[in-house]
Write a structure and sequence with these properties.
alpha/beta, Alpha-Beta Plaits, TIM Barrel, 3-stranded mixed sheet, 16 helices, about 30% helix, binds iron/sulfur cluster
């Protein structure tokens, strides 16, 4: 039987540099490299290469280069190489194609078509090095009116809130989909930064209970790892209704990733696939959602904000309006370009809408209905840099979740094969020999550096606009202009075209 599948990559090895140290062979969990003793030559099985660049980074003589495979099918404008290869794969396996991380397809990134304002002459800019600049935000319900008690004293009995030093949090990534060391890095960084990380739907390892004040715990449709102690230890509880990378379907963690430790945190047997159902089987309406929101509040004595996370889909504004009335304190909206540990490729690449449009329409709808203060909005789905954060806030967000950016800071090379469980960088794996490649001591410092760098940049951007707080930027769309967008896109985003 011929091999129909072509490699994605070619391994170029400079023989004049290769010293046969076999580091590449030891470092590659995909078993690409091998040594032919008889001929004293290093070989490569390129079909196994996922382009993670671990061997390139560790080769002591810089002998290696991984390049895109140059072989191609006969040119065809309708059938791309990718489409043909996918059909070969499915003809062989009979299964659903799986992928990880966000879609690589060239879908519109509206953040790149939005530009930020700066003060000139009449409205002076602010120098963040010399003047105070507030990046702190609070997430949760805001009081609609100023209330006083019978003696005239201000009633400051606010609903529970999350306080963030900067409007950035680490998004939900479960222990199981990512490693112990990756989770520890996120938990320690969140604690040091005064922000929050999110357990995802995998429960919480007992070692991480000490990071509870900076932990958001998730309650997903599978209810993995959910118990009273788990809810009690957290700063906030997130009900996961959907995820941007795979709206409308549940989660799937393959049995190979369910090790002893992961099984304890998830409360499921070792080695069994963890498949969470597509819907919550007790939620078929906003009233049902309200029951779960209040059950969780009741269970934690109304001391913790409840977040409802949904994927950005066509009627997101109406959905958000319902959630805002369900008693939830925060709505998290995850956009079409968001990442994942594993998702069916067709779903990841074809379902959902971009976060920018979803955010703008939700913020407008909640304002129009006079309920914007009922909830905070957190957005996710490919927030790549501090300018994306600033643009999201000006479009109406209170804060952003970052997932892929955080993993890249930990060393991820975006090879998009997390679902195979053989991450060579120690992030999306449970194999002990691979997990130890990520040193949490270094990992957490890199995350702290990333968020600190973004905080500096956010202050610079705010100062340039003549604004001295995130609060004053929130929903301030006058600070944004579009380039190359049509009338409808500008209308939904609620911004003017550049030059207007
Ligand atoms: S790591 Fe570099 S030098 Fe060592 S065997 Fe591989 S290609 Fe050769
Ligand atoms: S986490 Fe690991 S497997 Fe996943 S994309 Fe990044 S480098 Fe690849």
């Amino acid at each position: 039987m011929p091999n129909y599948i072509l490699p994605d990559f070619e391994v170029e090895r400079r023989d004049d540099r290769c010293i046969r140290c076999r580091v590449c062979e030891r470092q590659c969990a995909n078993e690409v490299h091998s040594y032919d003793e008889e001929n004293d030559v290093m070989l490569a099985d390129e079909l196994k290469c996922v382009g993670c660049h671990r061997c390139v980074a560790l080769c002591p003589t810089r002998a290696l280069k991984i390049v895109k495979y140059s072989g191609t099918f006969r040119e065809n404008a309708n059938w791309s190489n990718q489409s043909i290869l996918e059909i070969y794969k499915q003809a062989e396996s009979g299964g659903v194609l799986l992928s990880s991380m966000g879609t690589p397809n060239p879908c519109p990134v509206y953040f790149d078509k939005i530009l930020i304002n700066a003060s000139q002459v009449t409205n002076p800019s602010i120098d963040p090095l010399r003047e105070p600049m507030e990046t702190r935000v609070f997430l949760g319900k805001r009081p609609q009116n100023i209330e006083r008690d019978e003696t005239g004293k201000l009633n400051n009995n606010l609903p529970p809130q999350l306080e963030l030093s900067v409007p950035i949090m680490f998004s939900a990534m479960s222990y199981g989909s990512i490693s112990y060391n990756a989770h520890e890095s996120l938990a320690r960084a969140a604690t040091e930064l005064g922000i929050y990380y999110n357990t995802g739907e995998g429960g919480l390892h007992e070692d991480f209970y000490k990071y509870g004040p900076n932990t958001i715990v998730q309650v997903a449709s599978g209810r993995f790892g959910v118990h009273k102690g788990y809810l009690d230890v957290a700063a906030a509880i997130e009900i996961k209704m959907g995820q941007g990378a795979k709206p409308g379907i549940g989660g799937h963690l393959p049995g190979e990733k369910i090790t002893e430790d992961v099984s304890r945190a998830r409360m499921i047997p070792v080695g069994t696939d963890a498949i969470s159902p597509a819907p919550h089987h007790d939620i078929y309406s906003i009233e049902d959602l309200r029951q779960l929101v209040y059950s969780l509040k009741e269970a934690t004595e109304y001391k913790k904000p409840v977040i409802v996370k949904v994927a950005a889909v066509h009627n997101i504004a109406a959905i958000a309006s319902g959630i805002a009335r369900s008693g939830a304190d925060i709505i998290a909206i995850d956009g079409f370009r968001g990442g994942t540990g594993a998702a069916p490729t067709r779903i990841r690449d074809n379902v959902g809408i971009p976060i920018e449009l979803a955010l703008a329409s939700v913020d407008k709808r909640l304002r129009d209905e006079g309920i914007r203060g009922n909830v905070s909005l957190v957005v996710a789905g490919s927030i790549r840099n501090s300018a994306d954060v600033v643009k999201a806030i000006a479009l109406g967000a209170d804060a952003c979740y970052i997932g892929t950016a955080a993993l890249i800071a930990l060393g991820c090379h975006l090879c998009r094969t997390c679902h195979l469980g053989k991450c060579n960088w120690g992030i999306a794996t449970q194999r002990p020999d691979l997990v130890k490649r990520l040193n949490p001591e270094i990992g957490y410092k890199r995350l702290v550096n990333l968020v600190t760098a973004w905080q500096h940049e956010i202050k610079e951007l705010l100062g340039g606009m003549g604004i001295n707080s995130i609060e004053a930027l929130r929903g301030n769309r006058l600070m944004l202009r579009g380039v190359g967008l049509n009338e409808k896109e500008l209308e939904i985003l609620g911004i003017k075209h550049a030059g207007e």
